[in-house]
């Protein structure tokens, strides 16, 4: 079946509509106003009206178009029958909420469609930069409609590595600062999209992440000729009961064996959430 024709238009519409709701609250270079209604779900886990409204917009668009599919979203984790579904939407309506709150344009809407545990369509949209990344299984990755692919860097030392802003502040990247050319960036979905477009060589996290953080970016990287696995080199499977990933390594493909070897004896970080 040609997934491009039936899924991607609805995904793009949902992402752009969600972006419109998010940008209603965004203030470039400044903290969002009180109208954004900031609350906290836990440590380092803020929630705003933009998250909620973007989630509602995406869910309405996608579940109206495909009512028989399952649904998994950061902002709608109530038990449902998603585990019984062959196809499931995996959504983070606003990945990088902390950056959004601080007026930093390093956040994204992340939408993926998984079939039998594997991603088959993906859309990552950065509203302030108008950067739209899409991928369909077997058909490559694109940025604003143009094909993209990962870098061809072959040397791990000195490679450009995208590091998490929050993990950098905690000191998690100190052991690697002299090995890689480090660039700190917000949303992990946006990091994976940036990697897929060839603007960096690798990124990884040894801190647990949720499926909705990774799903869309995972397909973007694979379809751009990169590689993404867990720390043990296993391909990631989605729509699991706990919807949690203990580690994620993404590279341009060329660097993956070397990165797996480098991190083999590095311990995983605890789940701070």
Key phrases:
273 residues, alpha+beta, globular
Brief overview:
The protein is built from seven helices and 16 strands.
List the helices and strands and how they pair.
Blueprint: H1 3-23, E1 39-42, E2 45-47, H2 49-65, E3 70-73, E4 87-95, H3 97-101, E5 108-115, E6 118-126, E7 131-136, E8 141-143, E9 146-148, E10 160-164, H4 165-170, E11 181-185, H5 188-196, E12 202-205, E13 209-210, H6 211-223, E14 227-229, E15 244-245, E16 248-251, H7 256-263
Parallel strand pairs: 3-4, 10-11, 10-12
Antiparallel strand pairs: 1-2, 4-5, 5-6, 6-7, 7-8, 8-9, 12-16, 13-15, 14-16
Helix pairs in contact: 1-2, 5-6
Polypeptide structure, described:
By secondary structure, the protein is an alpha+beta fold. It has two domains: 3-145, Fructose-1,6-Bisphosphatase, Chain A, domain 1 (2-Layer Sandwich), CATH 3.30.540; 160-263, 3-Layer(aba) Sandwich (D-Maltodextrin-Binding Protein, domain 2), CATH 3.40.190. The chain is 29% helix and 27% strand. The chain has helices at residues 3-23, 49-65, 97-101, 165-170, 188-196, 211-223, 256-263; strands spanning 39-42, 45-47, 70-73, 87-95, 108-115, 118-126, 131-136, 141-143, 146-148, 160-164, 181-185, 202-205, 209-210, 227-229, 244-245, 248-251. The strands form four sheets. A seven-stranded mixed sheet has the order 3-4-5-6-7-8-9, with helices on both faces. Strands 11-10-12-16-14 form a five-stranded mixed sheet, with helices on both faces. It is globular, with a radius of gyration of 17 Å.
CATH class of the largest domain: Alpha Beta
How many strand segments?
16
Spell out the helices and strands N to C. HEEHEEHEEEEEEHEHEEHEEEH
Gyration radius, rounded: 17 Å
Given helix and strand content, the structural type is alpha+beta
Output the number of helix runs.
Answer: 7
**Uncertain runs:** none
The main sheet orders its strands as 3-4-5-6-7-8-9
The named CATH superfamily of the largest domain = Fructose-1,6-Bisphosphatase, subunit A, domain 1
Q: How large a portion of the residues is in β-strands, by DSSP E?
A: 25-35%
| Distance between the ends | 39 Å
What is the CATH third-level topology name of the largest domain?
Fructose-1,6-Bisphosphatase, Chain A, domain 1
- Describe the global form: globular
For the largest beta-sheet, the strand count, sense and barrel status come to: 7 strands, mixed
